Amino acid sequence: MANSGYFDENSDVSAILFDLDNTLIQTRKGDTKACNKLVELLQNEYGLPKDMAVESGSTFLRAFRARPDDESYALHEWPAHLWRNCLPKNYKHIAKSVSTEWLRLRFRYLALTNDVIHLLETLREDYLLGLITNGPSRAQWQKIERLGLRKYFDCVLVSGDLPWEKPDQHIFHEACKLLNVEPRNCIMVGDKLETDIKGGKEAELAATVWIPLQKDEEISDLPDITIDNVTELPEVLPNSPKLKRSTNMSDDC
Length: 253
Description:
Layout: E1 15-18, H1 27-44, H2 50-66, H3 77-86, H4 95-110, H5 114-123, E2 128-133, H6 137-146, E3 155-158, H7 169-179, E4 186-190, H8 193-202, E5 207-210, E6 225-226
Parallel strand pairs: 1-2, 1-4, 2-3, 4-5, 5-6
Helix pairs in contact: 1-2, 1-4, 2-3, 3-4
């Protein structure tokens, strides 16, 4: 449930910075769903015993989360390499087809929900929107492009392209610079206390909004506002006049 009342009537918030994974898209849940479907596929289509299929899927998911990209491989070849390492010896030849199905299912489950699309489209009528995401450049841009996210944002920053990552205040200030706004006019929305919230506080943004990944996660006093889901964000935003998108924004956005 959203907690409101942080902003007063004189608040002048003109830009909202969003985290990507587990904030706008449910990366952990989506990847788990995709992997569970693949476990079924391994059993029903390829004949793996259930215990082998489950072990292969679990091992792959752990490896992929630990290292979502390796630039010594082509981007589409990296998950195939991981599957090849995770499948039993007699099934390694199916790694490429399994990896193709993994990517299809993954982006199906990571797609923005209609509620989040409506949220972003509505917010863009009154606010500048920025996206700041940590992670390897190719892997993060693959998600951004495959999910069609660019059109919702005035500025997109991927830490893999930059000398800093969240919680370094420089990445937040870079977003503000590209949007041509002051940090005091921005809020940061994200799921991680140690990156999104801590970084937003150290960058002296107007406020930080935390979305705990787990419903039973211990509430922290670090964020200014806590909500259960990103779609609750309008409930806590100030009602002050907003800054419309301007031709003065940096072309680098």
